[in-house]
Amino acid sequence: MPQATRYPWDHFPPVYIHASESAVQTHHAYAAAKAGESLAAMKLVADAMSPQIVERLWRRFDGQSPVLINVHVKPVAGANAIPSALARALSASLG
Q1: Residues contacting residue 72 through CB under 8 Å, at least 6 positions apart
Q2: Mean pLDDT in runs of 10 for the chain (95 residues)?
């Protein structure tokens, strides 16, 4: 099978990590948030969102008015509420 062609992302910004995967997956609200419970997702995001990363995002995108979108796959059981909660929280934090 031929290997897929990779295209450069040009000036795409770096990825900003708020918390480790293990910290998120062991959070008491993770299972419910992953299953689609919005309140659990908001609690998880509030606890995992890094003020230092929010500050870095603010400096990186200041004056650019980026649009935040939540991208996720549709799982078999429930709809993961975490991406939407993170997008909403970042939008509120960054204006």
Answers
A1: 79, 80, 82, 83
A2: 71 85 96 95 97 93 82 71 93 88
